[in-house]
């Protein structure tokens, strides 16, 4: 009996350690995503499609970009929750709140340098895109909470019987068009980010999923 109790305690410790590790990967991933978005913005050669919308809303309402990220995220989460008739997960809510918070913190701290020359600005663009892809892969691999766009993408794909890829493309086009109409910046970086973020995210997702699966084996879950 005493041996069984020790085994149960060991199992619980292992589960708690694994969950804590996933939370850490989730938080770091969200931070890296926000860092990448801020880096792209400081490059000033266009931004990712959703940030066209966020910056357009920021210019229109005079709210911070991070706050607009949160508002758009809340609207999408509420819509998805309403249509699917289920509550959003705590991880999803934390995801959208943390991205906006981290983004504002990074932009306000002037952590990312600004350059006048085109070459260093393009380097910032590429570096930011890579960071966004890495961060996205990390938080998705953690399985703590999907982003607002992820839930809406899956709902649209299921509701209209279309592929997830087509569903995500339609959302991206909608965000880009709406953002452009209200004054968001559309330039080289906008079109470069579309084909580049996906492959980086996929590589990051595979890597972190593999690492977390290895860890789960080590703690005998």
Mean pLDDT, as a whole number?
Answer: 87
Extract low-pLDDT stretches: 6-10
Gyration radius (Cα, Å) is: 19 Å
* Form type: globular
First-to-last CA distance = 21 Å
Helix coverage percent: over 70%
Query: Proportion of β residues?
Result: under 5%
How would you describe this protein?
82% of the residues lie in helices and 0% in strands. It starts with a helix and ends with a helix. It has one domain (2-218). With 221 residues, the protein is an all-alpha fold. It has helices at residues 2-43, 49-61, 65-84, 90-109, 118-142, 148-159, 164-181, 188-218.
Summarize the structure.
82% of the residues lie in helices and 0% in strands.
Features:
globular; single chain; mainly alpha; 8 helices
Task: List strands and helices in order, with pairings.
Layout: H1 2-43, H2 49-61, H3 65-84, H4 90-109, H5 118-142, H6 148-159, H7 164-181, H8 188-218
